[in-house]
Amino acid sequence: MDIGLLSVSLNVYSTHRIAEEAQRRDHYIELIDHMRCSVQLGGTAPAIYLDNEEITHSFDAIIPRIGTRVTAHGAMVVRQFELNGVFSSASSRGITRARNKVKTLQLLSRKKIPVVPTLITVNPATLEKQIELLGGPPVIIKLQEGTQGLGVMLAESTRSARSVVDTLLHLDSDILVQKYIEESGGEDLRLFVVGQQVVGSMKRSSATGDFRSNMHRGGSAEALVPTAQEIHMAVKAVKHLGLGIAGVDLVRSHNGPLLLEVNASPGLEALEAATGKNIAGEIVSYMERNVKIKRSF
Q1: Which residues pair with 220 in a beta bridge?
Q2: CA 153 to CA 276: how far, in whole Å?
Q3: What does the pLDDT look like over 226-255, one tens digit per residue?
Q4: Which homologous superfamily does the CATH classification assign to the domain defined by 98-114+183-283?
Q5: What's the topology of domain 118-180?
């Protein structure tokens, strides 16, 4: 199988591990910097170029590892591969959906998946009443396009929440306000979904003095055995978003597990370290199964 690995660098742990596992199984895998790709439309047929080299029909499958700040261009390249019949581990539509936290929560809430109570607003005048509807402060304020714990703030009072919201709206930032699940104790869960299975899970705990459990913010992680309900939620969320591979973040509350967000390009390093599992190998196995299915028609 010939695989295009859409990423900006092989020096990233997750990208390197996927390439390593693909090569170990005798697949050809090539790093494709999607930021150097162009799509040519019109003429006899649309074409995809990496610099000056046409790569339209060079791969049986692609694995997108698209960075947050280049989602639009990356998804456009993925879409063109899809239109040319190349299997992708994440649909272009799924990538753009998952990158917008509001769209993700709107869709999954409509699909009856329990999500953290969330407020989407551009009206600071009604903020106090709306925060009361969330259960009152403290609340979490997030940038819609934030990642790795960046752009996530804890407001311990309505007054501080108003100040943060006023500032962000003045800067023309898209934000959402979420209920702070105090009983979670600064912990959340990451369930890694490949296809229709959860292949690895971990519990992430925040560093002392921080409410964010992200590993990039100094948090710690340990292996986790998720409940049947948590597994069902994660698999269902990934399916509805149109992703084949994703990291699903949940938080445990007094009312059961609640979905925080879905990551379309989840990292492997912390999860493989915490669980001892070969997550990269699971990704390559998923590609093998689906390319065989595609070719059988």
Answers
A1: 205
A2: 32
A3: 999 999 999 999 999 999 999 999 999 999
A4: ATP-grasp fold, B domain (3.30.470.20)
A5: Dna Ligase; domain 1 (3.30.1490)
